[in-house]
Design a protein that fits this description.
Elements lengths: L4 H9 L3 H23 L2 H18 L9 H19 L23 H16 L2 H12 L4 H8 L3 H19 L14 H29 L14 H19 L3
Helix pairs in contact: 1-2, 2-3, 2-4, 2-6, 2-9, 3-4, 3-9, 4-7, 6-8, 7-8
Length: 253
């Protein structure tokens, strides 16, 4: 049974990194496509998604559920991508040649479909900046107007206008083939695995450094009084901490 967003958040806040991995695998594709629509570069989009996840993890306790978790995450990655584009505007000027990737295992079994997907990606990349992210979220990720407006921080009327104009441009290029937009910017399993692995490594290093810093600030523990013996509660607490430390040491991603 699929855990709810609320359940995932509670588990992550309790320190369950496997719940964080589950969350990333649920939203990786949407966040990558959002960043890719803004940056027009696969590598830069991956970096933006990774940084967005780290930011989201650190701010997760501030999430109040006033919007969908997916909308909140898209908003974070969109801001990260926009900031990167402002810092390096030339990086988004010329999109790189797209690699042929597929969600399904094995080689492409439909050359015409693959060619159509590459054509779609080329024309989506050619959309003006204000239209491209709206088009990807509405047509490719199928977010509704309200979700798209909340994710990008723009009015709903602006979303409608930009989407209408983007569809007009796409129709002039592709005519009745626009219904295949869900195939654009396929999110391969290898890319998903790489983002998950790198985010967990970044967070693991940060948590380890924080733990070391915390230990160095603690005063030395006083020696127990002569004749002291741990009662059952103390023994259970020690056993619980030992088990948790063992589980943490065994985690590898």
């Amino acid at each position: 049974m699929q855990p709810t967003d609320t359940e995932l958040i509670a588990r992550i806040l309790s320190g369950d990194l496997r719940a964080l991995e589950k969350l990333m695998r649920l939203y990786n594709r949407t966040l990558f496509r959002t960043a890719r629509a803004i940056l027009r570069n696969d590598a830069d989009a991956e970096d933006a998604v990774q940084d967005a996840y780290v930011q989201a993890y650190r701010k997760l306790d501030t999430f109040r559920g006033e919007s969908k978790l997916s909308t909140w995450l898209v908003r974070i990655v969109a801001n990260e991508a926009l900031m990167r584009r402002r810092r390096n505007p030339r990086s988004a000027e010329a999109p790189e040649q797209q690699e042929a990737v597929s969600e399904a295992p094995g080689p492409q079994d439909d050359a015409e479909r693959a060619q159509m997907r590459r054509l779609l990606e080329t024309h989506i990349d050619a959309l003006p900046d204000p239209y491209r992210a709206v088009f990807v979220l509405r047509a490719v990720e199928e977010l509704d107007v309200g979700e798209t407006a909340a994710a990008l921080g723009i009015p709903e009327a602006t979303v409608r206008t930009r989407y209408f104009r983007a569809r007009g441009l796409m129709r002039s290029w592709l005519r009745d083939r626009i219904d295949h937009t869900a195939d654009a910017f396929a999110f391969a399993g290898a890319r998903c695995d790489r983002i998950v692995r790198q985010v967990l490594a970044l967070l693991g290093a940060a948590l380890a450094a924080s733990a070391v810093a915390g230990c160095s600030e603690k005063p030395p523990r006083p020696d127990p009084e002569p004749g002291y013996q741990a009662d059952n509660a103390d023994q259970n607490l020690l056993r619980e901490r030992t088990v948790k430390q063992g589980e943490s040491a065994r985690m590898s991603y």
